[in-house]
């Protein structure tokens, strides 16, 4: 079902049907996957919150080196999203593939302890952590999409992303609390992160079910079938539109470092900056999901990147505490309007038996774009300074929007 059909169905059914769709979106599977993501994000964001502090200040990496590791964290294992999506569809076991990804990311938290101060080992562990994320993301999103009716895709992803973001909100707070208790002993953060990640894996095993019937009841998907997805014009437009937008997106780690330095915050407060982003994301995730189902998911995605553009523009004005808060809020709102909504937009364009693969292709493109963006921003910062780097990325995002807006609107039509 295309977006225009979804939107028309919602309008015809009215408010009562809309509330019914919301209830159907809140299936046990969506809630269970939301709880898995909540726990996993607490674990992941504990590590993410301290990595800039650890790498930039304790290990004294320069911006180009930091950008290299940050890009690796974001997208170096992006191809595994394709592997995870295709394997999940091919062998008709999305839960198993997602579980393998969650399990790998949990074990890697202990790997950070072994890496110590070795930058190459840290890079290796970061790669393994992202391998886990690459394997699990597309199968998980496919299970969410298949657990909700077409007219409630935005609501389902909104609920999931709200729970996911609640974990992202608690993760930096937990890391900050651990560091406050034990000082700069980052080993304690890694141990607590591992324990929380294990809880997430247990919830997945015990409470998440495989949607769409048993494996025997679903047809196998060949590689040729998966490649054939690119022949679908609306889906191809979404894929092409998301690539330049990803390349023009500054990573959150760099965003926090730019803000921290421009405002003059003590480095110890750096782990708390993601909390404001997560709070804005959490507040807007469900409302934006409902709005996407009513107004059109492409419209909400475009609005999200417009908010990101405003975020970058504010980085170029004289810094102040008010600017800091507004920038973080805009970043959170842009996440709420794009993260789950992109999956809700692409999911119904794909057949059920190839949904994980199709979502993986979109997510891989985004991850590779973000990796390039981190490397480019790090090099620009080292060569010309952070302000020049922000100016270049702001211009790039304007161009990316000029390309993406007509493609997304046609995908919706």
What this model shows, in words?
It is a multi-pass membrane protein. It comes from Sphaerisporangium krabiense. One of its GO terms (cellular component) is plasma membrane. Keywords: Membrane, Transmembrane, Transmembrane helix. It is found in: Cell membrane. The protein has 413 residues and is mainly α. It has one domain (25-212, 230-412): Growth Hormone, Chain: A. 82% of the residues lie in helices and 0% in strands. The protein contains 16 helices and no strands. It has helices at residues 3-25, 28-58, 63-75, 79-90, 94-115, 119-146, 153-182, 186-207, 223-227, 233-247, 252-263, 273-295, 297-315, 321-346, 355-384, 386-412. The longest helix has 31 residues, at 28-58. The N and C termini lie close together (12 Å). Mean pLDDT is 81; it is low at 1-19.
Mind telling me the C-alpha Rg? 20 Å
Q: Looking at CATH, which topology would you report?
A: Growth Hormone, Chain: A
Number of domains: 1
Structural class by SSE content = mainly alpha
Low-confidence residue ranges: 1-19
Q: In the CATH hierarchy, what is the superfamily?
A: MFS general substrate transporter like domains
Please describe the structure with a list of short key phrases separated by commas or semicolons.
single chain, 413 residues, mainly alpha, Growth Hormone, Chain: A, globular, disordered N terminus
What can be said about this structure in brief?
The protein has helices at residues 3-25, 28-58, 63-75, 79-90, 94-115, 119-146, 153-182, 186-207, 223-227, 233-247, 252-263, 273-295, 297-315, 321-346, 355-384, 386-412. By secondary structure, it is mainly α.
